[in-house]
Amino acid sequence: RFEKCNYLSYIVSFSEGYLYQMMSGCEYSDSSMTDMVYSWSYVFNKQEYVHYDTKIKKYVGKTACGVKTAETWNKDKDRMAGLLASVDRYCKYNMGLYLSFATDRKIPPAVRVRSMKPFSSQHQTMLVCNAFGFYPREIKVTWLRNGVKVTADVSSSELLHDGDWTYQIHSYLELTPQSGDSYTCRVEHSSLTEAIEKKWGEFKLPH
């Protein structure tokens, strides 16, 4: 399902206590971008006085001064043609770059399994499965004991953002090992053709 997306840019100017802002935006709700709308808002001292978008194809004044400004700008044929052309030249071009980076980008996770001290005293040890450096964010981490899915005594960290548009997550399994048991962390992600499985040996208890 494709959600509505906005792409905004701002220009801000201060002069002798006055604040002037110009905000342009691109909005669409379909990956084909056929419903792309390009808009401009002009704001003086926090009050919008002129607005434009490609749905109505003209400037609309929001104040008395804005009405006069809109009338003047609407008569400028080159200006109006340039705004319509910006749907392709500015909006679709920039969103295409964004989608190729953010939507089509896939980076597989690196996976590591290690042991550490358990959170509680009810179990002898705890296994940690670290999955990191992956994109997009959706990922599934499962624990297996002797090939069978384990759900008891399993917890997980929140999905964590790295500083490079990738993510990491950590899954924990507290356990009291039995002789002959082997544990596997299974990680499924859209970047992988098959799941990654990292096995944590076979427990051998002393006789």
UniProtKB/TrEMBL annotation:
Please name the InterPro entries in this protein's record. Ig-like_dom (IPR007110), Ig-like_dom_sf (IPR036179), Ig-like_fold (IPR013783), Ig/MHC_CS (IPR003006), Ig_C1-set (IPR003597), MHC/Immunoglobulin (IPR050160), MHC_I/II-like_Ag-recog (IPR011162), MHC_II_a/b_N (IPR014745)
Entry annotated with the keyword Membrane: yes
Subcellular location(s) of the protein: Membrane
The membrane topology term of the UniProt record is: Single-pass type I membrane protein
In this protein, which residues make up the domain named Ig-like? 108-197
Give the source's domain of life in one word: Eukaryota
Q: Record's Gene3D superfamilies? A: Class II Histocompatibility Antigen, M Beta Chain, Chain B, domain 1, Immunoglobulins
Please name the GO terms of the biological process aspect recorded for this protein, alphabetically.
adaptive immune response; antigen processing and presentation of peptide or polysaccharide antigen via MHC class II
Q: Does the keyword Disulfide bond apply?
A: yes
Print the keywords alphabetically: Adaptive immunity, Disulfide bond, Glycoprotein, Immunity, Immunoglobulin domain, Membrane, MHC II, Transmembrane, Transmembrane helix
- Cellular component terms, GO, for this chain's entry? MHC class II protein complex
Q: Where is it mainly found?
A: membrane
Q: Which Pfam families match?
A: C1-set, MHC_II_beta
Protein name (Swiss-Prot/TrEMBL): DLA class II histocompatibility antigen, DR-1 beta chain
List the source organism.
Acipenser ruthenus
